[in-house]
Amino acid sequence: xxxxxISLAAVIALALIPGFTFAQxxxxxxxxxxxxxxxxxxxxxxxxxDYITSSNSRNVSGNVVTNDHDPKGKNLTAYLxxxxxxxxxxxxxxxxxxxxxSSKFYGTKTTFSYKVCNGxxxxxxxxxxxxxxxxxxxxxxxxxxGANYNDGNDVVLNWTTSFENNNDRFEIERSTDGTxxxxxxxxxxxxxxxVKQNYSFTNSVSRQVSSKNDLYYRxxxxxxxxxxxxxxxxxxxVYKTKSLQLVSVTPNPAINDIKVNVQLNETSFIVLKxxxxxxxxxxxxSVKSNEGxxxxxxxxxxxxxxxxxxxxxxxxxxxxxxxxxxxx
Length: 328
Description:
Layout: E1 15-17, E2 20-21, H1 27-40, E3 50-53, E4 60-63, E5 77-82, E6 87-91, E7 96-101, E8 109-117, E9 126-131, E10 140-149, E11 154-175, E12 182-193, E13 197-204, H2 207-212, E14 215-223, E15 228-230, E16 234-238, E17 244-251, E18 258-264, E19 268-276, E20 281-289, E21 292-298, E22 307-315, E23 319-327
Parallel strand pairs: 3-9
Antiparallel strand pairs: 1-2, 4-7, 5-8, 6-7, 8-9, 10-11, 11-12, 11-13, 11-14, 14-15, 14-16, 16-17, 17-18, 18-21, 19-20, 19-22, 22-23
């Protein structure tokens, strides 16, 4: 039996229903039809949500289009859809953005939204979430707090901040028992800044008071809207002996390890010992120090168990100081 060849590319038109016919076509026509379909139904670009965590600044910058894409690789332009309610946001067309929180924003999260366009089509709206560690949103970050003693019988306090948010002022408070504090002065703050700031305050103390008492100082930071935070106390003991002028002890504000400032009149050998409430030595540090102000950090003390500790300092095997500390 002889078989006929059948061509799929050529079909005879048949009238099946009045007004409808199957017409002859070709593979070339089908390809062209597909191309036309592609042109009519172009896929839009895709914008992905972004999650950003600030590590060292309240102001946050970045780029939102680095994880967005266009199916045909076209250039993308970013457009702001909804700004953050917690500050000022600027978004450039290339996707670069900068967020500056308002002075009254103390939250740990804020958002803004945007879309990207390729010249003809735009994406769905994407959301950018900016997260702040809780410690970043305090009104002020204190990174150093110490003291020295001058020849005029004055205690000179020095402290440093790494950033400030709506910081109106510092009120300096003093106590002779570590419990009852009274205001002894005020230092103007620097408002809102991400630049390190250094401060100083001189407190005149009579020799009669300083020779008989430990002096406790703390900083009360007050914002423009009257929010307050209070530092840990700085313990100051004035000596004015042959070797030793002053010793101050405080938790290091940045990492909460014990920090000791020693003001020496001559080069001396210093031993620092930390003991728990049972009298067991848990840490020791021995150093040779030069004349002037020296600072030592007892590394690792921030991880000690809660409780009462005694810090003993011995200078040249002659002068001894013991400070009672509470780890909470």
